[in-house]
Design a protein that fits this description.
Elements: H1 7-51, H2 61-83, H3 86-100, H4 107-133, H5 136-144, H6 149-179, H7 191-202
Helix pairs in contact: 1-4, 1-6, 1-7, 2-4, 3-4, 4-6, 5-6
Length: 204
């Protein structure tokens, strides 16, 4: 195609040339964002509930120490993945697993994994905030009925906290759609990767 061709002619040409690949890239982007958000919400839910365990109230010293240790590990996980860019996480996990542990993940699986654990770190704080927003009397009511911590959380507190959490879940899904573009560094053929390929081929 001539260099002086009109803008719309170029658009038609690129759609004809890269249209199917762009659609596949958009599908990969949406799939990674959707699955990453769902899995991340599950991770965040579990981490948030464990964070909410009142360790000081546990009388058994061994159990109290164990809970403190688990909460410490999860706090470190949340701080590390909230405090580092996703592009760094993708490079370290994909190439690090290959170099150090000889684990040869597919780029797509690595993309799912990175987005999931990144979302899980953000959702953990969202869940914790949603739990703290529920009046403490609800927790006391669960204890008065003889429920343990997890029964109280899943039967009483979380159903009420869900309305506080739901907007952030939708927000994380939107963020993940945008953030999947960084996965091109590990060769995930999402929408941005395909568009960059087209730009690199035809942009002078």
């Amino acid at each position: 195609m001539a260099a002086d061709s009109g803008f719309f002619q170029w658009v038609v040409f690129l759609i004809g040339e890269y249209g199917p690949r762009l659609l596949r890239g958009a599908g990969v982007t949406l799939l990674i964002a959707l699955i990453g958000t769902i899995v991340g919400c599950i991770i965040g839910l579990l981490v948030g509930v464990i964070h909410a365990i009142p360790a000081r109230e546990i009388k058994n010293p061994l159990r109290r120490t164990l809970v403190h240790a688990v909460q410490g590990v999860m706090a470190a996980y949340v701080e590390i993945f909230r405090g580092t860019p996703m592009i760094v996480q993708a490079v370290v996990i994909y190439y690090g697993a290959m170099t150090v542990f000889q684990i040869d993940m597919s780029p797509l699986f690595a993309g799912f994994f990175v987005v999931s654990i990144n979302t899980g770190a953000y959702m953990a704080e969202t869940v914790r905030g949603g739990i703290l927003a529920v009046p403490h009397g609800q927790v006391e009511a669960g204890k008065a009925l003889g429920m343990h911590h997890f029964q109280t959380m899943f039967r009483i507190v979380l159903p009420q906290a869900l309305r506080n959490i739901l907007p952030q879940i939708c927000n994380n899904f939107i963020i993940n759609i945008k953030d999947t573009s960084v996965l091109m560094v590990i060769s995930v053929t999402e929408l941005f990767y395909v568009s960059q390929t087209a730009a690199g081929t035809y942009l002078n």
